[in-house]
Amino acid sequence: MPELVDALKAAVAAGTAPSPDLRLALAQTEDTGVLRKAGRALAWLTDPEGRLRPLRVSVVAACTVGPLEHLLRACLVGAGALPTIALAPYGTFELTLATGDFDHASDLLLCLLDESYFLPDDLDVTAPQAAADYVEDRLAQLGGLIGAALGGTEATLVLHTVPLPRALRDTMLSLRTRGALTRLWHRLNAGLLALAEEHPQVQVVDLVGLLAESPVAARDQRLHKYADLPYTDGALLLLANEVRRIAQARSGLSRKVLALDLDNTLWGGVLGEVGAEGVELGGLYPGKSFQDLQRTVSRLRQQGVVLVLASKNDPGPVEEALAGHPAALLRPEAFSVSMVNWAPKAGNLRQAAETLGLGTDSFVFMDDSDFERGSVAAELPEVAIIDASGEPAQLVDSLVRHGWFDVVELTGTDLQRPDLYRARSLRTEFSGGFGKAEDYLRALDLRVTIAPVTRFTVARAAQLAARTNQFNLTGVRFDEAATLAMIDAPDRLALSVSVTDRFGDEGLVGAVWVARDAERWSVLNLVLSCRVLSRGVEFAIAGRLAELAARAGAEVLEGRFTPSAKNGVAAGFWEKAGFVPEGEGHFVFLPGRTPDPTPSWITSLGGTEDTANTRENEEQGA
């Protein structure tokens, strides 16, 4: 794919970020030669328009990293990031972690390991179990180094399981002895995986498991002997792609919506030709493969992926087939939006995005038709596209292999998201019966609850900070560690925003981070899910902040707005809320003296008074 590298070079030379279609092509490329060239070309990438998410990565290694830097950069740009990658000097693995001699502002700290870190040089091949204490001690030392490194950073530290080289294993002639070493190595890798449970900032990639299912070799013996490089390009690409998935989830670059075709995608055959009873679904191959895909899609929905049906069919037969086919695992209610008609699919996806209140860049589209995929790619290059043609047995792998929907941690809102967006669709239908927008909003019976972030809601608040782009006032993305630190800090305040209406509970949809002293409260950032925009919720938040600031005795409440490529919808918010401009991007409000901006159709509920009063008393020495 030399044309891909040439296009990336052209973007770099022009001083612009690669277009969405180029980034998606990069994300789905598996040719290590192409990715190495792409990574080198992208080393000088700039993004003056702010289309990519800045990402700082530090790499420390107990071995030679080889082309990892280039492969990693290519993968990260493919995910929509603008990476800055710093490599620690060779041979300084333990020293770097122990002394914290890396960029503490890093978002990711990647540790590259091989078997030599854990095994003694004088391993007794007749009794490898004798090395168990040594291996366990090295694992404990690594855990201590990780604790020291994480003490001064909010970075996510990425480890990986370590393959046992076949040459070493086969050196042991006794089958029992070989089995003993293998058991020891499985315990080591289990211990590495357990580090993620001990440290919230740690993520562990199961490289051993990936290699077991991949056709690539783990090691090139010549490169290992010549350059102390323990992994092949293919193995390093497996690792780089998993790091990309972690960065994607951590930075809020994952997708939210899966749009699906029906014919020859969710079932075999064409419904209009064979009828509901004639489609291939369930039973033996290939029907079993289509049912497996439906099962996987259902599991994704259970974890918060929003489903859209995008099929060129007549609605009646589709409804009948989904509701009545005994092997169907996706019923009509599984889809938050159903676009079943004969219109172009690109337009249908745009309409579905408007109904959901999401951007099309949050969509993944799966279809078997070359024409439909090509049409959507041409009109909506930001949509990730999955080819459902070809071998039905590969459908599930095609859907999940790139990790489009990964999140760091599932929250309660994630689990409710599909139903929340289905309710949004119902709200859209409901709004058609009103002549005035305000009459519709009053009929919704909106209730907004603003409460302190707790240890139970901090994950969702951090997720909103990472994933919200449209109504994100400053772009400062407070992660879980930073938000946790604010919970007990007397000069900081982190608030969550929840919304309910006549159609149900929208869940936790917003968050606010505030710096405060006796005289002045400063909003460091305010984010709000696009799911509840246009209902006045943001003005209820401003009103509540003003009320709390006045109650604490503050004379000024200030807000900031930092424009980005995606947050134009939030421009002008502070002025509309009654704040007065005071310098570029800076706005002030006088609590208790400026009118309350809370809309009359919203009931704003408490939950912060006790916390606010308690902290106020503490600051006054009560």
TrEMBL record:
It comes from the Bacteria. Residues 612-622 have a biased composition (Basic and acidic residues). Residues 594-622 are annotated as: Disordered. InterPro entries: Acyl_CoA_acyltransferase, FkbH_domain, HAD-like_sf, HAD_sf, HAD_SF_ppase_IIIC, SGNH_hydro_sf. This is D-glyceryl-ACP synthase.
